[in-house]
Amino acid sequence: MIQSSQPDLSQWSFIQKTTFRFFCLYFLLQIAPWTWLDITIPGISYVTGYYQSLMEWIVSAFNTVFFHFPKTNIINNGSGDTSLDWENTFTFLILGFIGAFIWSVLDRKRKNYTIANYCLGVMVRYFVISMCMSYGIIKLFALQMPTPNLSQLATPLGDFLPMRFSWIFIGYSTPYEMFSGSMEVLAGLLLLNRKTITLGVLIALGVFTNVFVLNLCYDIPVKLFSGHLVLYCLYLFANESKRLYRFFILNYPVSSNTFHFIPYPKKWMRITRFFLKISFIIIFVGVQFYNTRERYLSQNKESATLPFQPGLYEVDTFTVNNKVIPLKLSDTLRWKDLIFELSGFGSVGSSDTSFRQRYHRGYFAFSTDTIQHTLSVKKFVTDSQHIYTFQYQRIDNQTIWLRGKHKTDSIQVLLKRSNHHFQLVEKQFHWISEANR
Questions:
Q1: Within 32-144, where are the H helices?
Q2: Looking at residues 113-123, what average pLDDT do you find?
Q3: How far apart, in whole angstroms, are the C-alpha atoms of residue 412 and residue 395?
């Protein structure tokens, strides 16, 4: 077991011991550190899968008895605030309270939990580091919030939901996104070294508090998770709060940090600790950086050229079954404009539900065949069926003629390339501004 050269013989108060028991159990349930083995030990997922199945059963039972959240088919849609996430959180809170009560009864004579608190601190600290690296490195390459594309630029500002608006706000400025990512990476690196943990905790607390408030104020559906990151930082901060209060508020000299400095008396302990730390750095820092860099290079390599110019096209003529449909502001189904991106994605100014509707625009994926001169359109890039297949004809560099069928309707579309200029893509910056811009 781990021993300290100067064992902490102090008597913890009843509140300190009870609070520690609750948070120890709650953090273990939330973080589930044993699941980290899934990515390091082949086949271990079969074992941890039993734990996952057990917890799913418990959460479902608690929901049936206590919470009564509606049963919904949850898909991996990026939201961390689903009803299932709230079910998990409430269930873990109840289990934490029940477990802390039973633990307090069975272990009521223990004086303190110094060693257990150290171990819990290590687990929480490395989880925070992994999140700092995960979110920080992807921002360093400006991949989390990409630069607004033409479809977003062509969408009226008032049609965006708050989350997408915040994504565009951050993605517009690559230096700002890289700065925010560098602060997360800096916090993670400082937390890796026990001598710089205190500074790392302060930076991480500031960074994740800002993220949590941003998620709250812009209705970004990662409120639960970001809130827990703040809670984990507060736990690490609380273990040094007396030192920090004396130093920053009372201006008193303080002793060195002892919370993270329990010595390992045996050689095999020190070797094991070193091996685990190096493994963590390789997996959660090195591999994360390599994979993100490869993704960045993949997205920024020379894109396949299109048989026509990408960009914004106005729909000059829209014909259905040989009948010209005039442009009317009240007509939400008639196509108003069409955008082709080099990435193979595009959007249309229409409420046509054949497309994936977002922010009053229809989004789609497309591909071209330069031999057959066809343009194939899918709702999602993973779909096997096309919703439109057009024969395209380039009249000139600015004009495209599309002809095809949709279900039983014959569709013809004449596209004129727009010269509309979006000021937001100029990346303007002025040291001197004579007027408020």
A1: 45-62, 83-106, 114-140
A2: 93
A3: 14
